[in-house]
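# step 3/5: fold
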Amino acid sequence: MEKIKCLPSTAFLNLTIFVLSLLVSAPAQAALSQEDKIAIGTEITTIYRAARGVIAKSQKLINDATKGDKGLSADAVIAKTKENYKKATGNDFKMAAAGTLKAETQTALLDAIKEVMNNAQPLINEKGKGLKGFLPAIFAKQMGDGFNKNSSGKASIKLTAPKNYVRNRANRPDKWEADVIENKFKDPGYEKNKVFTADAPHKGKPAFRLILPEYYKEACLNCHGEPKGAKDITGGKKEGGKLGELGGAISFVIYN
């Protein structure tokens, strides 16, 4: 009788691990509940806003021509981001359990912040130069691009706005975002600061989508306020926005 050949123990173990990884990891994202997805979207948009807030609050420092090192290293900005996160949520920032999509997206965003700030050091620390152009919106765009790259096709984020308020064409709302902005967020009866969620395609792929409205604060009006058409400090034209008016939105996607 011909003997059955056995796989070497190491090869068998590796095969077992590979098969199990397919069984466990493949459906993990699909198994997320709607509540899980909302929690992830809320977490990532909160970190995103917290980080942008650090750069917004640091504009005077960044544009100080008399100073060299501004003390805004990647680690310093991450630390301040976590402080802002706690102010916004009432909780300390915590990494989610390893291997979860929440942990993956947290890591993707923190790594993006680090990369943007590391690359920005020569610019923001340049002595003798005033306006650096390292604006909150620029930082947010770069942070979003980094997150999208780091997320490996599992999630994405971007800053957008009503069409008439968009400056950077890359931030233009897609059809779904524009519809939510115009027909939900601009509705006087819509609850302020409430996220809107739906299952809707994104770039041709089935996805869970979350979008968070943002309203003009006093500091925003320096560049985006009145008089409409006047030049702001960057040379761009002011939109004529008013305090408390809908000025933008953060759009987040988890691909199903």
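# step 4/5: annotate
Confidence is low (pLDDT under 50) at residues 1-7, 15-28.
# step 5/5: archive (pending)
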